[in-house]
Design goal:
Layout (H helix, E strand, L loop, with lengths): L1 H7 L3 E5 L3 H14 L2 E5 L2 H10 L4 E5 L1 E3 L5 E4 H11 L4 E6 L7 H7 L3 E4 L4 H26 L9 H18 L3 E8 L2 H7 L2 H18 L6 E6 L2 E7 L3 H18 L4 E7 L6 H17 L1 E5 L3 H13 L3 E5 L2 H10 L4 E5 L7 H11 L4 E6 L7 H7 L3 E4 L4 H26 L9 H18 L3 E8 L2 H8 L1 H18 L6 E6 L2 E7 L3 H19 L3 E7 L6 H20 L11
Parallel strand pairs: 1-2, 1-3, 3-6, 6-7, 12-13, 12-14, 14-15, 15-16
Antiparallel strand pairs: 4-5, 8-10, 8-11, 9-10, 17-19, 17-20, 18-19
Helix pairs in contact: 9-10, 13-14, 18-19, 19-20
Length: 576
């Protein structure tokens, strides 16, 4: 009985009965059983009361009368109204005129059970226990269907449903609504170097950090797939969402020792849930691609700037001088450099010039408090995209960085049109020869590691002969997608060398990494479209020319194909 009372103490029951004595008796019975209970004497009062409190149990006389004796709302109609707005509530109906209402009428209206009056406490307890048990089982089954079993967060299916509901509510009630997408950094490499148990533990820890960082009982967190999460932020604008981002980022760094990229989208009138989700995804993708190096010799200035950048969602590293900045650029694939101009030793202008010479695609924004010493033209001619005066607000910094990134992306798109293979989306052969020459020269000059992978699909001609060139094109498109997904975006580059031949240039990679990437691609090709391919890898050595590096990879590729020639051919199935 004690365990039952503990369970019942979580239940809040509402009694509806026009008879004062019957109503008071029922409330006493419920409280004796351990329920929290209130009562009203008519249906209108009941509906108002249910709007104010979260009732879990409703016990209603089947025919409702208001105090002056006129019928107000039919009992069955009341049940239907309550179930429409409170689908999980347990409802028991009661009457002394059982011939007027059949059991099936009551159940079909939405009640859990029917009880005759006068009510006996034993019968009441038994029927309540059964109704509550059935409700709990249904809720548990429902939660299993919408919950990610590993993290305990809601799953993608429920995310799409809930986002749609919240967008409708925000539209109709003119509420603030934001969507936050989260992607854990370098999680594939974490998965590759650790056992699945450790990977699962990381996901569980990350989900706890996310849950603890949001408003309990209001915001909702979801695991969408793999290492990607989403949070629906109720009543939040962009600035509030950024505060949540900062809180989650710090929690992940402190508790999980892992970084993350964030994408924020804010609901606007007339927008659909799909549009909101796509906007957050795009913002996530954009911030995930950007990695900013901040340089300033004054630590009191540098730390707030780095925190501003992180608050805006960018992955950020900060250093105090030009020499350390060049070392960081050599070791890490930064996409944007934010540097002070006036620094002891190497000046900001010299740093910009040297960085742009070594990394032409690097986006640069210069900053200084001494505008009279440097003209805007000097800064731009050194290689910077824009200029910002200190002190500045993070909104101004955000605008300057967004503009610099936008200009860079436009230039890239124009450039990509001339160097991209239209079928696969990879770079073309002309770009391959040019880029390989550049990277070999850079590896020679900076003593960097560099590797090359050549790939040739097995028996591709047989596939074209059997299924036709259109199907062959579909295979090549899929291969392009797989290569792009298996290499480091923004660092390594994939190429369609010709026909069914492909190449990958791996920056700062040795033979071990080249073999690892080759195995990953081979495994994905096999799993996703039953494609077998031959691979040849080569690593740059001092004094080597680009032609020599390519010949070494080619030699290994065709040696591998010769080995396979003696074996049974591996057919390629149709992708589509």
């Amino acid at each position: 009985m004690n365990s039952e009372r503990i369970t019942y103490s979580k239940e809040l029951a509402l009694v509806i009965d026009a008879d004062d004595k019957a109503r008071e008796t029922l409330v006493r019975m419920l409280r004796h059983l351990g329920f929290r209970a209130k009562s009203v004497d008519n249906a209108t009062a009941a509906l108002l009361e249910m709007e104010r409190s979260s009732y879990t149990v409703l016990i209603a006389d089947i025919t409702r009368h208001d105090p002056d004796g006129t019928e107000l709302i039919d009992g069955l109609e009341l049940i239907k109204q309550v179930k429409a707005t409170h689908p999980n509530i347990c409802i028991l109906t009661m009457t002394s005129h059982s011939e007027n209402y059949t059991y099936i009428d009551v159940i079909e209206a939405g009640a859990a059970d029917f009880i005759n009056t006068p009510v006996l406490i034993g019968e009441l307890e038994a029927k309540l226990k059964r109704a509550i048990t059935e409700r709990n089982i249904k809720e548990e089954l429902s939660n299993l269907s919408i919950t990610d079993p590993l993290t305990g967060l809601y799953n993608r299916r429920h995310f799409e449903q809930r986002l749609g509901e919240e967008v409708i509510r925000a539209e109709s009630q003119d509420l603030n609504l934001s969507l936050l997408m989260i992607d854990l950094d370098d999680f594939n490499s974490h998965t590759d170097t650790r056992a699945h148990g450790n990977r699962d533990e990381m996901l569980q820890k990350s989900s706890r950090v996310i849950t603890q960082s949001i408003k309990k009982g209001l915001d909702q967190a979801f695991r969408l797939r793999g290492n990607q999460f989403a949070v629906i932020l109720i009543g939040s604008d962009r600035e509030s969402a950024r505060v949540i981002c900062t809180r989650i980022r710090k929690g992940l760094e402190q508790n999980c020792h892992i970084g993350a990229a964030f994408g924020i989208a804010v609901f606007k009138k007339g927008a659909s849930s799909n549009a909101l989700s796509e906007a957050a995804d795009k913002a996530l993708y954009n911030t995930k691609q950007e990695s900013i190096l901040a340089v300033d010799n004054d630590e009191l200035v540098l730390e707030p700037i780095a925190e501003m950048l992180r608050h805006l969602g960018f992955r950020t590293v900060s250093v105090k001088n030009g020499e350390d900045a060049l070392d960081q650029l050599k070791r890490n694939p930064f996409t944007l450099l934010l540097t002070d101009i006036k620094m002891p030793g190497m000046s900001g202008l010299e740093l910009i010039q040297r960085a742009k010479n070594a990394y032409p695609d690097l986006c640069v924004v210069a900053m200084t408090a001494y505008t009279e010493e440097y003209t805007y033209m000097e800064v731009i001619e050194s290689g910077a995209t824009d200029f910002i005066n200190k002190p500045f607000a993070y909104t101004e910094l955000e605008a300057k960085i967004a503009r610099a990134i936008r200009e860079r992306d436009v230039k890239r798109k124009l450039s990509d049109l001339s160097i991209t293979d239209s079928l696969t989306g990879l770079h073309n052969q002309h770009c391959f020869f040019e880029r390989l020459e550049q990277e070999v020269n850079r590896a020679e000059r900076q003593d960097n590691r560099l590797s090359l992978i050549m790939i040739d699909l097995d028996n591709f001609k047989d596939h074209n002969d059997k299924y036709g060139h259109r199907s062959g094109d579909e295979v090549l498109q899929k291969v392009g997608e797989i290569i792009s997904a298996c290499i480091r975006r923004g660092v390594d580059t994939g190429y369609r060398y010709g026909g069914d031949e492909f190449a990958i240039i791996l920056i700062d990679s040795d033979m071990e990494i080249a073999h690892f990437i080759s195995k990953r691609i081979a495994k994905t090709l096999e799993q996703e479209c039953n494609i077998s391919a031959s691979f040849g890898s080569a690593t740059f050595k001092k004094g080597m020319k680009s032609e020599e590096l390519m010949e070494n990879a080619d030699r290994k590729l065709y040696a591998r194909k010769a080995e396979k020639h003696e074996k049974k051919p591996h057919a390629i199935r149709r992708v589509v």
